[in-house]
Design goal:
By secondary structure, the protein is mainly beta. The protein contains four helices and twelve strands, in the order ααβαβββββαββββββ. About 30% of the residues are buried.
């Protein structure tokens, strides 16, 4: 499932949590283009490239939606805020940060096992096996916290992403701020289940 695959990409805002866990947030600015494999998007012929950028000093990440979907998500790990920007509609939707954490990053109890090394898109990385609340898979992560490849299964759905271009360099902080003048909307909430 694509969400499982990008779990390592959005990750937690720490250079390294412990010796038995990989660094999960880049320690320097970087932009990465990923190819998505598996999951519903590919089965339906939808765009399969994802672009992400990290503003390391401010612990922010920007994920541009695949293809011409006209939107992006910004997660501010330090400020514990996440927002979806829908450019075509000129709208912003605040996302619950705690919920985004649960969906897109390993939990504190996730188990990691170091398996070896590899190179992806010309960049060296360490292969890690991970198991986390019913999800499992492998990720290849650089020593400075950039996820280059992840594959796994969540809720019975396989999926993966792999970097096809990695560009280290200063990122424009303005790209990590919600645009002004957009209408703000609340995320729809599901009604409580009806009791029988």
């Amino acid at each position: 499932m694509r969400r499982t695959a990008i779990a390592l990409a959005l990750a937690i805002p720490a250079a390294a949590l412990a010796q038995d866990r990989p660094p999960m947030f880049p320690t320097r600015d970087v932009a990465v283009t990923y190819r998505i494999s598996g999951g519903p998007a590919q089965q339906q012929g939808q765009p399969t490239e994802l672009r992400m950028a990290w503003l390391a000093a401010e612990q922010k990440v920007r994920m541009d939606m695949p293809g011409g979907m006209g939107g992006y998500m910004i997660a501010d790990h330090r400020g514990q805020r996440a927002v979806m920007v829908m450019e075509q509609q000129r709208m912003l939707m605040e996302l619950p940060y705690v919920q985004a954490q649960q969906q897109f990053q390993p939990s504190a109890t996730a188990r990691f096992t170091r398996e070896g090394t590899d190179r992806v898109a010309g960049v060296a990385c360490t292969i890690w096996l991970f198991e986390d609340q019913g999800r499992s898979g492998r990720g290849c992560i650089t020593n400075d916290g950039v996820m280059l490849r992840a594959s796994g299964t969540g809720q019975g759905q396989p999926g993966g992403i792999e970097a096809i271009q990695v560009t280290y360099g200063t990122q424009d902080p303005a790209r990590f701020q919600p645009p002004s003048g957009y209408q703000t909307m609340q995320m729809p909430t599901q009604p409580p289940a009806q009791r029988r």
